[in-house]
Amino acid sequence: MSASNRSPENEPPEHRSTEHGSTERGPSGRGSRGQTADPTPWDPRLRALTLGLVSTVTLIAFEAMAVITVLPKVAEDLSGLSLYGWTTSGFFLGLLVGVVIAGAESDRVGAARPLTAGLVLFGAGLAVAALAPNMWILVAGRVLQGLGGGAVPAILYATIGRAYPEPQRPRMFAVTATAWVLPGLIGPATAALVAEHAGWRWVFGGLIPLVAVAGTGTVRALRGVPAPTTVDVAPTAPRLIAALRVSVGAGLVLAGLTGRSAPGLALIAVGSVLAYQPLRALLPAGTLRARPGIAAAVAARGLLTFAFFGTDTFVPLAITAARHEPTIVASAAVTAVTVTWTTGSWTQARLAGRVPGRVLIGTGLLAVSAGTAGFALVLVDAVALAVPIACWAVTGLGMGLAYSPIASLVLAETPPERHGTASSAVTLSDNLGTALGTGLGGAAVAASEAANGTPDLGLATVFGLTVIVAALGALVVRRAPSRIFPAADSTPAAS
């Protein structure tokens, strides 16, 4: 649905725009009819909301950085390398369900209630993982974390779409990307040290108090963001059933791939049939065929996350298993990609008013492809470890360029009363891509370990596949809308 179909009378005055989507303004930064300039994320009117969203993203970032760093140690301790990929796939399959529920509910009742429920489930999942006696229970805890964590991206995108003027959205996405910097700088090394000296269980358990601290301020701020006055979403129950079918179907496909047997082929067939129709219903029409328009943008998001997270999950394993380096060395790669992702995100925010969104996305996807190809050199002992880590940093830069503009593009082409549902579609594609990428990678690594006693061949397969998928995404996004986002004013991003 194009931006021209929006109903301006349903938007707050500061969000109303011309038919091209930009607020009319004169040289001074005020509208040509005397309106004040769009509030920046740090304007007093939005500051509490911005701080709340940033604190919640920071919490999720600490969890992500910590868990991916210690996963090799967890798998070793619980003798669960065969389920290594499932620790990430399970999280994102749970996230897939959580984001659909939270997106629909945010359109129906506002953002505060679904975020509260999500954070409670997220904390419960951390507790289960911290106490897990085996790898299966750990995976179950990760699924529960994902179910609750799904509220965060759905609420984030919907709130940015409703509360922030369109010219400020790229900047707000860059602000939330910056929330990953501190966790990226200290999270991996801290997690490695905690796992080494106190045990990996404290990595999960130590995050539980942060859930309450970060969530309280965010929920309070979200209560000031009204729910849409016009509700145009399907009832939640059918969407929940559809999301469950997609999640279970994807899980069956991954289980079949992991089994590598005749019964496994049956699981793949059953899972595909179970997920296909509801997936079509939950995504914009034509997404699975990359139809020109926002469908192509949503499809590109899934290919992007498949390529990046399908590699990212196995970066620490490649460094610790293939190069036999300690976890603290692997944490350097995790930190590097986080910093460059943030750099790329701020770069796209600065270019958003001059470069079409699909150009930024395509450039980012090509960088992900090239950077992943370079990181594959980690499997060559003769290459200094600094080289693949530097290449992995290039991949982070590509993610920063491509990740947020997809959400901005979809929000700009969707009427405000459907921002929650549109956010769910973007995040659904995001999570499904991640789950399939990490699941296929996990199957390849498990097969390599079983056949050769090392994961090296499986890791090479993972890296080759994700390079191809990222390049495919760069082709698909050429079918997305060619839209240049309205330029933000020159007000500093933070005060």
Automatic annotation (TrEMBL):
The chain crosses the membrane at residues 48-71, 83-103, 115-137, 143-160, 172-194, 200-219, 359-380, 386-411, 432-451, 457-477. It is a multi-pass membrane protein. Keywords: Membrane, Transmembrane, Transmembrane helix. GO terms for molecular function: transmembrane transporter activity. Residues 8-23 have a biased composition (Basic and acidic residues). GO terms for cellular component: plasma membrane. It is found in: Cell membrane. InterPro entries: MFS (IPR011701), MFS_dom (IPR020846), MFS_trans_sf (IPR036259). Residues 49-485 form the Major facilitator superfamily (MFS) profile domain. It comes from the Bacteria. Residues 1-43 are annotated as: Disordered. PANTHER family: MAJOR FACILITATOR SUPERFAMILY, MULTIDRUG-EFFLUX TRANSPORTER RV1634-RELATED. This is Predicted arabinose efflux permease, MFS family. It comes from Parafrankia irregularis. The lineage of its organism: Bacteria, Bacillati, Actinomycetota, Actinomycetes, Frankiales.
